[in-house]
Amino acid sequence: MPMPSPPASWMPHLGRQRDWIWRGWQVRYTYAPSAQANALPILLIHGFGSSLTQWHCNILPLAEHHPVYAVDMLGFGASRKAAAPYNVQLWVDQVYDLWRSLLGRPVLLVGHSLGALVALSAAAQHPEMVQGLTLMTLPASRQELIPPWVQPIAGTLERLFANPLVVLPLFELVRRPRFIRAGLGLAYAQKACITQDLIESYVAPTRDRGAGQTLCRLSSASTHYDYAPNADQLINQLRCPTLLLWGQQDRVIPLKRGRQLVQQHPSLKLIELPQAGHCAYEEQPDRVNQELLQWAAQVKI
Fold it and tell me: What three-state secondary structure class fits 45?
């Protein structure tokens, strides 16, 4: 069996990392217990290309008040680089089964970027698992971005560039630290956050056996119409209080989208985070942790 990336020992703030077998695949998650054992648990879901290590500024501070869980979605981080049919529904099923196996009581579900779309989908499909929801930016699905009549043409063109002959050579290039640093420079408004440890957290999973093929599968899957559901439709199905946290300097998913979502769905609450880009959880961790704790207290009522 291919060996996953080892625990990120260079990040000491990740709780107790463990492996869990899901559908025959190894999945990495972490758990940080709290003295407030009966408090509302918090479950964290990372963004595309990232892992549970992205929460290294958040897990232990949040665990002072709440039990905290974080998971590597299949194909990412230290979870198996599986030959799986990747899409948002697969990750929703993974998160839901993890919740049933380890928690079994309502949580504050927190997702970032792609993880926010997974969290939103999970909350809409499985309301019994979610006491409250926090979405740290929310990408639009291709259903929202590309008109239905354009989908077949766009999908065909995208799949031409998503085949292994293109993706595998590109994988060898973009896994290099200098390219990852350049990519992170677009995501982070606070450049001081882009440390060697941060870069290593993105490089390490690319060393796993099967990582290149997984990128091929992810690239191909994202060209399909059913890769992700329509976020607007999901929001209309929500039964739980929902908070949006958005960096004012986000260049990946600009704040304009967050403001539009609130206009379209007044039940959402938006908090704008100054001096933060796409990765506010690390750029403004004290503020993010404070907002999450306040939201957890509010939805607990």
Answer: strand
Q: The domain containing residue 100 runs over which residues? A: 16-300
**Is residue 9 in some structural domain?**
no
Q: Which residues contact 36 (CB under 8 A, 6 or more apart)?
A: 65, 66, 67
> Does residue 174 contact residue 211 with C-beta atoms inside 8 Å?
no
Tens of pLDDT, residues 224-272: 778 889 999 999 999 999 999 999 999 999 999 999 999 999 999 999 9
| 29-56: burial string, b at 16+ Cβ within 10 Å, e else | bbbbebeeeebbbbbbbbbebbbbbbbb
Q: How far apart are CA 65 and CA 114, in angstroms?
A: 26
Asked if the structure places residue 157 within a domain, the reply is yes
Strands 16-22 vs 25-32: parallel, antiparallel or unpaired: antiparallel
Q: How far apart are CA 161 and CA 272, in angstroms?
A: 36
Distances (CA, A) of 210 to 5, 17, 29, 101, 172: 12, 22, 20, 27, 13
Note whether 268 and 297 are within 8 A (CB): no
CATH code assigned at 205: 3.40.50.1820
Among residues 19, 73, 17, 14, the alpha carbon closest in space to that of 48 is found at 73
Low-confidence residues in the chain, pLDDT < 70: 1-12, 141-173, 301
Domain tally, the chain: 1
Whole-model pTM: value is: 0.90
